[in-house]
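Hey everyone, long-time lurker, first post.

I ran two proteins through the pipeline my lab uses and got sequence/structure pairs for each. Pasting them in order. The first:
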Amino acid sequence: MSSANTTLAPVLIIGARSDMARACALRFAQAGHPLMLAARGGADQGAQGDTGALVRDAADIATRHGVTVTCHAVDATDIDAIPAFLDSLPSLPGIALCAVGYMGDQPDSQRDPQAAARVLRANFEGPALLLGALAERFAARGHGTLIGISSVAGERGRASNYVYGAAKAGFTAFLSGLRNRFNGTEIRVITVLPGFVATRMTEGLDLPARLTAQPQEVAEAVFRAATRGRDVVWVRPVWRVIMAIIRALPEPVFKRTRL
């Protein structure tokens, strides 16, 4: 596509076909960062069978912003394939953003262990181990920024989505531990907590406007965190207050909320 601004760190975006990830890609490209976009199917087929979707996104971004954009295939839940995926990249990125996620369906997860396992792998096991592998390579080099998009759903287990929430809680804890491990080094670890976001995944849901961010808001929050040094990002600060109240509820009271 077009030549990159080599003075800026290459950005790897994993799960690049989601609405939030694409908005983040556009924001980093606007600032001149070369991009590596990775998703299931990579350059060949989209997760929903949309052939060439990632290539079309890459071409659009490159044309708009004049940066190099490459496409890569990755299934974050295929743990054995992680080393080969990282070896296949044109270079080790300076910034890596994991936007992989899968909501699933709570009733399905309650009935079917395989459905629950898909949710757990897509939201915790795969993203955590992939960023963990990148962390080792960043450590060997001596610098880098890791960004994980988690969820406020991981702040406390709720009846309506506790399998998804448990997976995101695990991912949030993993990122926190990784950040603690690398404190005092040139490796940064950022946790992003978006709350509700108006995306294809939430289309049709009746979401409260004050609590619902747009993908572009998430992208701006991610970009600011990557460039200004924040560790934990609440895309809409009201969620910090809401979740503090929910975490503070005594268990007998919380059980009666049926959130």
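...and the second, right after it:
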Amino acid sequence: MSEIIKTDNASKPLGAYPHARKVDNLLFLSGIGPRNPKDNSIPGLELDMEGNIIKYDIAAECHSVFANVKAVLEASGSSWDKIIDVTVFLTNMKKDFPVYNKIYAEYFTSVQACRTTVEVKSLPTPIAIELKVIATID
């Protein structure tokens, strides 16, 4: 038995998929980015007239993506401390990993979730980070 989860408190999915899906006592989150749930903006992002990235703020995106993940967890009946596995996608590992890793440690020190971090060429919107999370539900 599974249950589909959607919430207005996290950035909206960009396609035909839910924020999360419960299966037994496991919760699988779809890829979650840092877009603001209220206006779809990306914190710290500046684009030129052609939509190319002028500058971005990986720290602001990290805090925002973690807030979106937390919102989906809570809407699903789970919580931050129940995260068991995180896959992180960065678009610029060399430049962004040190800042991301420091902020990640602030959020996950007591959680001790398994983690994989990979670099990807791009993500569907001009974001620098996306998380894929698995958590438990009591």
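Reply from user beta_strand_b:
Welcome! Quick read of the second one: Residues 2-136 form a domain with the 60s Ribosomal Protein L30; Chain: A; fold (CATH 3.30.1330.40). The longest strand covers residues 83-90.
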